[in-house]
Amino acid sequence: MSAYDHISIEKNWRKTWDKNKVYKVTEDTNKEKCYVLDMFPYPSGAGLHVGHPLGYIASDIYARYKRHKGFNVLHPMGYDSFGLPAEQYAIQTGQHPAKTTEKNVARYREQLDILGFSYDWDREVRTSSPDYYKWTQWIFKEIYNAWFNPISDKAETIDKLKEEFAANGNEKIGPNREQKNIFSAADWSSKSDEEKAFVIDQYRLTYLAETMVNWCPEMGTVLSNDEVKDGLSARGGFVVVQKKMLQWNMAITAYSERLLQGLDGLDWSSALKDIQENWIGKSVGAEVAFAVENNEKKIDVFTTRPDTIFGVSFMVLAPEHKLVKDITTEAQQADINHYIDESRKKSERERQMDKGLPTGVFTGAYALHPFSKKRIPIWIADYVLAGYGTGAVMAVPCGDERDYKFAKHFNIDIPNIFEGVDISESAFSDKEVVIANSDFLDGMKANKAKKLCIHKMQEAGFGEAKINYRLRDAVFSRQRYWGEPFPVYYKDGVAQIIETEHYPLTLPEVEKYLPTEDGKPPLGNATNWSWCTNKNIIKPNTDQNGTCTWPMELNTMPGWAGSSWYFARYCDPKNTEEFASKEKLEYWNNVDVYIGGAEHATGHLLYSRFWTKILFDLGHLPYQEPFKKLVNQGMILGKSNFVYRLVGTNTFVSKDLVKDQKVQALHVDISMVKPTVEQIGEKTHTVYVLDTEAFKNWLPEYSNAEFILDNGRYTCGVEEEKMSKSKFNVQTPDDLVVSYGADTLRMYEMFLGPLEQAKPWDVGGINGVYSFLKKFWRLFHLNENFELSDAQATKEELKTLHKTIKKVSDDIENFSFNTSVPAFMIAVNELGALKCNKREILEPLMVLLSPFAPHICEELWSLAGNEGYVVEQSYPVFIESHVVESTYEYPVSFNGKMRFKLELDLSLDKAAVEKEVLNFEKTKEYLGGNTPKKVIVVPKKIVNIVM
RNA sequence: GCGGAUGUGAUGGAAUUGGUAGACAUGCUAGACUUAGGAUCUAGUGCCGUGAGGUGUAUGGGUUCGACUCCCUUCAUCCGCACCA
Asked: In this structure, which long-range contacts are made by residues A419-428, counting pairs with CB atoms below 8 Å and at least 24 apart in sequence?
């Protein structure tokens, strides 16, 4: 063998590693552990595109590096295999989602294998596998059997809740989420069993509730807040409306504060922490109760500005607010009803679009100002959201822009309570202000007034300090087939949890994957539940056919259920007794480095932290935060090409001829477009030429397409977008691996730019990396024969090696792979120029390079006649003396009084040293006759001179 | 509107603490070898200028002996949140 033949080398080593289970990992208490994890993919039908592997390559490099460094590295991979596309495909074709999923998983695996990842595949998990979702169901049950104790600030079992009720009622722990009433221990003991069960349900961490949910009629399911964007579904972009439905919910709000506090100790980018912080949306203020005139009911409002309470001139309730019907006067009833109907009809999106004039209706009722006792008109308006705070606001038009507009529009009083501020044009929302016209708050700065006001309200008993969060409880039911079934049935309409001995409660077969005719979710079509037909277990209530007569829960769990705990399962993936054993969980502990996209900031990454905290509180996990360090790889964008069809015709106009004509831009498959570099004058640019024949054959509707050509060809438009099947801009890694090899692709993707940055895919530079590997290969070959010399390395060669060791190790620790690739290139160029083929230099270099390009290094390692695998060798140690030859003390005197030494590192070359000296001379010159107070000098550089 | 990020040659991008801006690679130009090259090697390549030299890190200003780097202004692009009281 002579030339670098990546195809056979890579194939051969993949097989050998696989056969010898080189990457299998077991718990070993003698070694320090390191858990390196990728966000597992949803196996879609399109296969992997070049964007997917970016993060996987980075984590693989890190995992391999840590292995070299002597760590016991857990580096697993699996599939988030429940999800919508497989189900949609099932609806269209009748093919069972499990089959589609199986097929897609196989394709993913093939593509992953080709890239030479060092996963321990014995630990693979799939969220849709019954062995796995058995434990997802178990976790659901654990959460169901838990409540959040505000005193201990953690989740506890329902048994503890019962003890608490028996001892103190709910006087200490506070009211439940529905009734808000307080009862004593005596009250509790006098309750019937049904009543008790009902009360307990209101404290559970997962609970059934009729809540306003994001309903997507097109998809026939509800969506959680993070699955909705701009009033449209994140997947598919369908319209989402608000609808009241009975759903399972997860009480994530109980953990708002801990989720917020926990961010502090995490090594995550501040951008991502900000997103989560924003999403949780903590605001500090007060809750104030306003009495209603001629009515016993009180209206609670939340405000962040209690200091402006004397500026209140009206109140606004959300149209859905409970008290609206109680307070509305007869005269206003018709108007109010009309307004409520109108706003109910509007989708979330329409509400957002309506940013014109404020709308609202007066209820006819008045509240009484708690301090001044003035009458305050109560309105309803849909700019107040039912879901935030108490669903009611005290409107302070002089201090809030929305209140101001509302007051102006409806001619409501705008009292000015700010000293020296003009509010004739707009509200003044700055907090740096002195309060006026406010009784006991006059002359105070806002901050001080805030505190005093809360104090006074507390004294008088109508208000108190309060913290509010934007975060909502997460809806946990989906009206879909392809998800985890709930271990729940309904006895006389009351939810009952199925006991763990019957898990997994497997997903039953159905004829059709669509909702039933009477509108039940797809599982309504199921007749055969495993739990009911298993002969050895007690069935709740079945007829002779084994069919449940007590209905099962027909919803399934959302996609984030399975992904919220999979990192724990990897530690012990085959365990049938527990979701993972204590010892293994303790050994592997939490994830040291987690790599994935930032798009999961408010979904997966938040829910995982939430579940981890519950499981920690209940004693099932030894850590509170699942992911210590998080690295967000940027998206790789695809270049999309467009053709322009004249509206209403089948004629396509070349890009530069479109001008003002009415055209429709359509995505065209990038495989039919050839980028061609052209010279125009001095500059070059790329034009995208369409293969018109291929285009005609592409889709039937284009078979008789006509083209208006430009210079005899059709040029397409180009744009950078997210890679997606529907945009026909997907670049798969497959072809590139065939022409250049996995090692080249791995290094090229790293070379492309900073890992965290979004960047367009461009194969232009791949040749540079490929020729680097060829050069590396050539270092070991003389006249086409492998040849390695045992001669002693020169100083220069050692310098090249060790400087590379230093650079590459530092870079890997910082996830700065894009700069370590050039370090290798420089090393190879230098060693090539020195004609160095010495074992002493090249063997460490192989080890160094192997995390990036494992196949070629393994091949050369074996050709060099070494034992074992290069991927198992320990990492070469950086020896400073090979790089730094000596240090040099440069005496300096200022003014003849003080002496300083400039220590210089004579490392790289003379020029660098001379530069430092020169710089220092310049400084000295500048200092002239002055005496500096202090000169801080560190090796290599003057840091500061204080005069 | 609020919060965050980014802005450097034709292109992707280097510049670890303020100290020769443009490493490394792509592209381009010229040359060598070759039957040929989309193989390999050599040289050149920020811009203006024949040259010495001048100029240059989105814009304008500031701090500093010295600024891509620190501070302020403006502009542009991207991301997150958005009637959040």
From this structure: A419/A443, A423/A398, A426/A401, A427/A397, A427/A398, A427/A399, A427/A400, A427/A401, A427/A403, A428/A398, A428/A399
Counting runs of H as helices and runs of E as strands, what totals does chain A give?
A: 30, 35
| pTM of the predicted structure, to 2 decimals | 0.90
Cα(A223)–Cα(A508) distance, integer angstroms:
23
Q: Is the CB of A439 under 7 A from strand B?
A: no
Nucleotide nearest to A912 (CA to C1'): B20
From the CA of A277 to the C1' of B3: give the distance in Å. 10
Measured CA to CA, the distance from residue A631 to residue A816 in angstroms comes to 11
Q: Is the CB of A2 under 7 A from strand B?
A: no
Tell me the C-alpha distance between A497 and A142, whole Å.
Answer: 10
User: Is the C-beta of residue A772 closer than 7 Å to nucleic acid chain B?
Assistant: yes
CA A683 to C1' B9, whole Å: 13
Model pLDDT for residues A262-300, shown as the tens digit of each residue: 998 899 988 899 899 999 999 999 999 999 998 888 999
Bridge partners of A36? Answer: A593
- Whether A278 sits with its Cβ under 7 A from any strand B atom: the answer reads yes
Q: Does at least one atom of strand B sit less than 7 Å from the CB of A931?
A: no
Instruction: Report CA torsion sign: A77, A83, A89, A90.
Output: positive
* Whole-angstrom distance, CA of residue A293 vs CA of residue A276: 42
Flag residues 79-108 of A with CB < 7 Å from strand B.
Answer: none
- Residues near A889 by Cβ (< 8 Å), separated by ≥ 6? A901, A902, A903, A904
Backbone angle region of A860, left / alpha / beta, with phi > 0 → left and psi within -120 to 50 → alpha:
alpha
State the sign of the Cα–Cα–Cα–Cα dihedral A182, A185, A187, A191.
positive
Q: What is the DSSP string of A31-55?
A: S-EEEEEEPPPP--TT---TTHHHH
Q: A274 beta carbon < 7 A from strand B? A: yes
Q: Is the shortest CB-to-strand distance from A270 to strand B under 7 Å?
A: yes
Mean pLDDT of A695-703: 87
Selected residue with higher pLDDT from A856 and A893: A856
The closest of A452, A466, A422 to A309, measured between CA atoms, is A452
Closest nucleotide to A316's CA, by C1' atom? B85
pLDDT digits (tens, 9 = 90+) for A839-848: 999 999 999 9
* Bases on strand B under 7 Å from any protein CB: 3-5, 10-17, 19-20, 23-28, 38-42, 65, 78-85
Q: What's the CA dihedral at A651, A653, A654, A659 to 10 degrees?
A: 180
Burial (0-12, 13-18, 19+ Cβ within 10 Å), A863: middle
Is residue A719 packed enough to be buried (19+ CB in 10 Å), middle (13-18) or exposed (0-12)?
A: middle
pLDDT tens digits along A444-460: 988 889 999 999 999 99
Could you say which residues 464-503 of protein chain A have a Cβ atom less than 7 A away from any atom in strand B? 468, 470
pLDDT for position A901 = 45
In angstroms, the CA A37 to CA A59 distance is 7
8 A C-beta contact, residue A571 and residue A74:
yes
Per-residue pLDDT band at A942 (split at 50, 70, 90)? very low
Percent of chain A with pLDDT over 90: 54
Alpha helices in A115-239 (DSSP H): 130-144, 158-168, 185-189, 193-201
Distance, CA of A656 to CA of A652 (rounded, Å): 12
Q: Is the CB of A534 under 7 A from strand B?
A: no
Strand B closer than 7 Å to the CB of A922?
A: yes
Cross-strand partners of A548 = A542
- Kindly state the tokens that stand for A319: 């149209």
Question: Quick one: DSSP state of residue A473?
Answer: P
Query: How, if at all, do strands A241-250 and A206-216 pair?
Result: antiparallel
Q: What is the pLDDT of residues A593-616, one digit of tens each?
A: 999 988 898 999 999 999 999 999
Neighbours of A54 (CB within 10 A): 21
